[in-house]
From TrEMBL:
Name this protein carries in UniProt: Phenylalanine--tRNA ligase alpha subunit
Assembly and interaction partners: Tetramer of two alpha and two beta subunits.
One protein family per Pfam: Phe_tRNA-synt_N
Subcellular location: Cytoplasm
Provenance organism: Cohnella nanjingensis
The entry's keywords: Aminoacyl-tRNA synthetase, ATP-binding, Cytoplasm, Ligase, Magnesium, Metal-binding, Nucleotide-binding, Protein biosynthesis
One of the protein's GO biological processes: phenylalanyl-tRNA aminoacylation
Span of domain Aminoacyl-transfer RNA synthetases class-II family profile: 104-313
Cofactor, how bound (note): Binds 2 magnesium ions per tetramer.
InterPro entries per UniProt: aa-tRNA-synth_II, aa-tRNA-synth_II/BPL/LPL, Phe-tRNA-synth_IIc_asu, Phe-tRNA_ligase_II_N, Phe_tRNA_ligase_alpha1_bac, Phenylalanyl-tRNA_Synthase, tRNA-bd_arm
Record-linked NCBIfam families: pheS
Length: 337
């Protein structure tokens, strides 16, 4: 049996055949197993002798099977290693890399400039109550200026915010009367406009608010000059034109010298040399009161700018809709800037 088994095992050339032989000799119904099973019928003297022989045979067969199996495993590993070799000298495939959206980029730039002046960033909800969006900002019900910002109402008292100014009230109330308060508030705002090259039902604003003792209009003007010069270059100048917002008094609109022609006059500034970039003013006493401050003790200034507008001017983009269409031909121009 031993000789026959070892001879057959020597010739095995594949793992399947090896397994067949293992079953044939050592399996439950295998030839050697049968011999061991028959030992019950032997005499007491024969049993240890035959048992010893049978165990030796089993050990020999198992040994050869293990050797063969190891050889097959080794060959298999080598075959796999050869097949899976990586040619490290092949040129790589470049994955498409995303970029930061130009509006995000400009928002971050604006945030950085104001963070550098000691401001913190605050955010508020896009779904807002009438109180924060209008009432607390000195726009009582039926105030004509409410029409200036045609709104998306959800209920009578809840709407999509039409500007970031409600975050002024929220941050003042959260500050609990503490001064100085210096925040900027970026975010989405919504108005019922028909979309065109310069209008969108959704756009982005950044609000600024400073509250403290003796805050004056000159502080506002200096702050804005500092901002536009960091944003557009040290040669840029500003001018303030009187304007009206219910939540600031006095109010102003701010122009910068045209970022395209430097103020000489071109198509972009309609040959005036100036381009409007934001609205601002001194925080109205009633607004300070809604924020929990005593207007006899503190004063403040606020401003609000459209991020799209700042970005259009900075990158000379002709249509606001480019920002929302996600056309890679547009977006990829900003990916590596
Ligand atoms: N909230 C105003 C707007 O959306 C902008 C503004 C903010 C004006 C703060 C003055 C002060 O038009």
């Amino acid at each position: 049996l031993r000789r026959e088994a070892l001879a057959q095992l020597q010739e095995v050339a594949d793992p399947g055949r090896l397994n067949d032989l293992r079953v044939q000799y050592l399996g439950k119904k295998g030839q050697l197993t049968e011999v061991l099973r028959g030992m019950g019928g032997l005499s007491a003297e024969e049993r240890p002798v035959i048992g010893q022989v049978a165990n030796d045979v089993r050990a020999a067969i198992e040994g050869v099977i293990a050797e063969k199996q190891a050889a097959f495993d080794r060959a298999d590993t080598e075959r796999r290693l050869a097949a899976e070799t990586i040619d490290v000298s092949l040129p790589g495939k470049a994955g498409a890399r995303g970029g930061i959206h130009p509006l995000t980029k400009v928002t971050q730039e604006i945030e950085d400039i104001f963070l550098g002046m000691g401001y913190t960033v605050a955010e508020g909800p896009e779904v807002e109550t009438d109180y924060f969006n209008f009432e607390a900002l000195n726009l009582p019900k039926n105030h004509p200026a409410r029409d200036m910002q045609d709104s998306f109402y959800i209920t009578d008292e809840i709407l999509l915010r039409t500007h970031t100014s409600p975050v002024q009230i929220r941050t003042m109330q959260a500050a609990n009367g503490k001064t100085p308060l210096k925040v900027i508030c970026p975010g989405k705002v919504y108005r019922r406009d028909d979309d065109d090259a310069t209008h969108s039902f959704m756009f982005h604003q950044i609000e600024g608010l400073v509250v403290g003792p003796n805050i004056r209009m000159s502080d506002l003007k200096g702050t804005l000059l500092q901002f536009v010069q960091q944003m557009y270059g040290a040669q840029v100048q500003i001018r303030l034109r009187p304007s009206f917002f219910p939540f600031t008094e006095p109010s102003a609109e701010v122009d910068v010298t045209c970022t395209q022609c430097g103020g000489h006059g071109c198509r972009m500034c309609k040959h005036t040399g100036w381009i409007e970039i934001l609205g601002c003013g001194m925080v109205h006493p009633k607004v300070l009161e809604h924020g929990g401050y005593d207007p006899k003790e503190v004063s403040g200034f606020a401003f609000g700018m459209g991020v799209e507008r700042i970005a259009l001017l900075k990158y000379d983009i002709d249509d606001i809709r480019h920002f929302y269409n996600n056309d890679l031909r547009f977006l990829s121009q900003f990916a590596r800037m």
